[in-house]
Design a protein that fits this description.
Shape: globular
CATH class of the largest domain: Alpha Beta
CATH superfamily of the largest domain: PurM-like C-terminal domain
Number of strands: 10
Distance between the termini: 25 Å
Largest sheet: 5 strands, mixed
Length: about 300
């Protein structure tokens, strides 16, 4: 296994060490979205950004994509719980404030969230020239949701299926490595533009699955690859038997595989943007509801 991602500036081993250390603080620190009991129900909260994808998007003035990616990162995390998104806040830090660019991002974010019944409640913009280099920007989002009733999904059991939903390419992960390859002329301009496509938002579709009691668990496939994200959605006494050869290989991943081999499975979504775990008898209904995202069976739950 190569260490290209670490060479690009991202240390996944240390990230996993941090997650392990924080695990002692409770289940919320292992989840895509944390929850707290409130007035007989639950409030659900998550926080995410879009990593260094913000750099080329901002440079190319792709403000709508920034908004879609930020909404996707958080709404997709929220979709791993049976929660309805109700509010969203943003944090943007910059070296130098550009009122036109930042207002374009925030206005687009408001439009995107409105499509999913979620209100943009405001946020914070911070100009930090002493901390950030000239031209730098970072963005982060915070989504709040509510479980509308006490909900306890059926327990996961051996033989349950892992159903994968197709990604729209890279989404917003692994961009330190993508940008490294592009700077070294290992990715062409057209291939790099392919990587900049906006992320898919699965929130509405997955909400339908929860409402119809069709799924037991769910995982947003983001940084760290498929297995690292998916294993967080099953109890510790179970494992996963996945077959990556079943993933329809998108052209960009064919190219990335030639550049970094099996390390793509530790860094990228590899064509899988979201996964749900379900009983075999529900698979047909899930395939019908999720047909927009070309679902397929990726594997199954097994006992350790």
């Amino acid at each position: 296994m190569s260490d290209l991602y670490k060479e690009s500036g991202v240390n996944l081993e240390e990230a996993n060490n941090l997650a392990a250390k924080l695990g002692i603080l409770g289940d919320n620190f292992q989840s895509f979205a944390g929850s707290v009991d409130f007035c007989g129900g639950k409030i659900v909260n998550c926080c995410d950004g879009i990593g260094s994808k913000i750099i080329p998007l901002y440079e190319r003035k792709l403000f709508k994509t920034i908004a879609v990616d930020l909404a996707a990162a958080n709404l997709n995390d929220l979709a791993t719980k049976n929660a309805r998104a109700i509010g969203f806040s943003d944090y943007i830090s910059v070296h130098t404030l550009d009122s036109f660019a930042i207002s374009e991002i925030i206005i687009e974010l408001h439009k995107v969230l409105k499509n999913y019944g979620c209100s943009l409640l405001g946020g914070e913009t911070s100009e930090i020239p002493a901390l950030l280099k000239n031209g730098a920007i970072d963005i982060c989002g915070f989504a709040i949701g509510v479980e509308e009733k006490n909900f306890l999904p059926d327990a996961i059991s051996q033989g349950d299926l892992v159903i994968a939903l197709k990604s729209n390419g890279i989404h917003a992960n692994g961009f330190s490595l993508i940008r490294k390859f592009f700077s070294e002329n290992k990715l062409s301009e057209s291939e790099f533009e392919e990587c900049l496509k906006p992320s898919y938002i699965y929130y509405d579709i997955v909400r339908k699955l929860w409402k119809n009691n069709l799924i037991k668990s769910a995982a947003n496939i983001t940084g760290g690859g498929i297995y690292t994200n998916l294993i967080r959605s099953v109890p510790e006494n179970f494992g996963l038997d996945l077959n990556y050869q079943l993933i329809p290989r998108q052209e960009i991943y064919k190219k990335l595989y030639t550049l970094c081999g099996d390390e793509i499975y530790e860094v990228f979504n590899c064509g899988v943007g979201f996964c749900v775990i379900t009983s075999p008898e529900n698979a047909g209904k899930i395939f019908d509801i999720c047909k927009t995202f070309e679902p397929f069976i990726l594997g199954k739950v097994v006992e350790k």
